[in-house]
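Researcher: Structure prediction, please.
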Amino acid sequence: MPDRQHRINNRIDKGQARRAFSRAADHYDQVAVLQREIGQRMLDRLELVRLQPRVILDIGAGTGVATAALAARYRKARVVALDFALPMLQQARKRGGWLRKPRCICGDLEQLPLADHSVDLIYSNAALQWSNDLDSAFGEFRRVLRPGGLLMFTTFGPDTLRELRAAWAAVDNGSHVSTFIDMHDVGDALMRAGLADPVMDVDRLTLTYDRVGGLMRELKILGAHNVNSDRRRGLTGKGRLQAMQAAYEKFRRAQDGLLPASYEVVYGHAWAPEAGHRSNAPSISLDQIGSDLNRAGRGG
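Model: Predicted structure follows.
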């Protein structure tokens, strides 16, 4: 289990992550099978919640699959997609009808450009693992939630891609796989942020591949390859790559002859307390979002 100091030492290179997801935008939906599945499972959980939100914020919206689903479910709500990669949001803007395209914000989840107490529901699927400071992220989530508002999210736990991590560890001691935070540490961060009645649980899913190369290509297309700040720079040597692939072979399954890639999916939700706090964080008018994104997309 990675401790807090290990996480600090393996910070996400936000600039590299943003560039990776920007490059991935055009082909992301072709391979984002897992992301869509856990996103749908989280949407299904909303069926159990009695909530009629006026404003919904989809944090880490990507190409807007969940944004569109939220808009269809809550037809009277204003749904806002936030992502730190502008090309992802340009894909999201293609969804929906002419009269109800999603409003979009290009921004970072650790510094939300929204006013205090302006959102009723935060939905965030597989985005928090790109945060370097969960305390800042959850503090921002609480700040923008209205009293009684709901935060619902997924992220990945430390057993995610454990086979790939072990295979690389057999080759060298470098950083090749992103670091993920334990569910209990996520829950502790929710408590420190002052969010109420937090609930956490875990699901374990496995994708399978004929060869390691299929997994590596998929991670690259997703923009989800290693962007830790202490990763090796430059190309990985052919010899080390072959050694990693050989080490991965010990995980090949006897029952179907395939290579597994494990994912530990962490689900969480919590509520904004009735007595919220205020801050001087910058805010953005929701009425300006669509036109701002259109100007950014034209380079103006």
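Model: The longest helix spans residues 33-45.
Researcher: Thanks, that helps.
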